[in-house]
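Q: Sequence in, structure out?
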Amino acid sequence: MNALVKNIERVTGSIGILASFAIVPLVLATCYEVFARYLFDAPTIWAYEVGYILTGSHFLLGMAYTLQRGEHIRIDIFSAAFAPRTRAIIDLVAYAIILPLMLWLTYALFGHLATGYLRNEHSGQSAMNLPVWPFRIVFLTAFALFALQIFAEVLKTTRRLKGETA
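A: Exactly. Output:
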């Protein structure tokens, strides 16, 4: 079980770190758009669409990594008063609710991806009008990784409740 958790976390960690590099082209595209628009009075047809795709990809692909690092927002004013065992039980209950939802969402996103690909859907968000299926791959991957990381968190929390060490 320990090897399984380490392998899951290796994958989610690697993808999370890779996703962080989406900030570089996002900043470059945004800066280029600002200079093109305000210095040369020649706005681009692609910067808006590239910007929201990179921003969305960055946040979505970082979800699992953020969970792995324990950085998701919690209401510490309440949980800080609880004993570690009580916090672990609350986490386990939350994971038991969220995991099936993420699995269902991942399944639904696969259908959404397939539909977009088969219908050759495009974004319609700018004159660039990108196909949507590549971004839907990001959605599917992100939620599948998130579900996988939640499963790893369930295993880690269960071990903690049993008194086992990492």
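The chain has a mean pLDDT of 91.
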